[in-house]
Amino acid sequence: MLRKLIFGLMLLILLSSLASAAVIEGKIYDIELNELSNVKIEVNTVPRQILVSTDGSYSFNLPSGTYSITATYSKEDLKIIEHVTVKDQGTYNLDLILFPDLDPEAEILNEVTEIDIANSYFEEDANTLGRLTIIIVLAVLAGLIIFIWFKFKSKTEEIKKEVEKKVAKASRPPVPEDLKDLVKFIKQEGGRTTQKDIRKHIPLSEAKISLMIAELEDKGLIKKIKKGRGNIIVLK
To answer: What is the pLDDT of residues 170-207, one digit of tens each?
Structure first.
């Protein structure tokens, strides 16, 4: 009678724990992510649950608590140990990736990391969102810095060119009085004319015009370009 009572109490406790249990399920892979079959999987519940997966998947009903899930593939000497913490009801996915069971590599590859089923996925999403936000902010800042740099560089180039023009203009020697009419005529012609046209509009001898053009050229005020029998005079 006492034995039946104890057995009934144990059965009641077991049923009540199963009522609040979570379902842990997933696929089983090797290190190259190929699905494995005929893998032995066990969980250290009381009593211990053991199954052999024939289709590359597994499923356990686990009450609240912390457990070790051990998967062994003896054909290729592969193994993994995962620790999980169950706090709430529900169905949770936990894929198992088996690694070669070698020493001392096995201790490193099978190093256990506790997985809080209720919170790990939410924490991972929060961490991903935080990292994504930081990346976006850094990208915007980098783009802003590049834009400001190019804008500053362009403005600096404009200022530099303007200063060079002013310096060049200020450094030009003054035009002699007898050459001002010649410079004025070249300006009126758009800064470009021929020596023949100059002789037509300025009532001086050809020799005098040639000397005036040569003097302006020496002072760096004009540039003479030979074209055929004549010369093209360009104001600098």
So the answer is: 666 666 777 888 888 889 899 999 988 888 888 888 88
Chain segment 207-233, per-residue pLDDT in tens = 888 898 888 888 888 888 888 888 899
Strands 39-43, 65-73: pairing is: antiparallel
> In angstroms, rounded to a whole number, what is the distance separating the alpha carbons of residues 114 and 61?
18
Q: How many helices (H) and strands (E) does the chain have?
A: 6, 13
Q: What is the DSSP letter of 220?
A: T
In angstroms and rounded to an integer, the radius of gyration of the C-alpha atoms of the chain is: 46
Do the beta carbons of residue 26 and residue 93 sit within 8 Å?
yes
22 φ, ψ (degrees, to nearest 5): -110, 150
Domains and CATH numbers, the chain: 23-119 (2.60.40.1120), 177-235 (1.10.10.10)
CB 236 within 8 A of CB 219: no
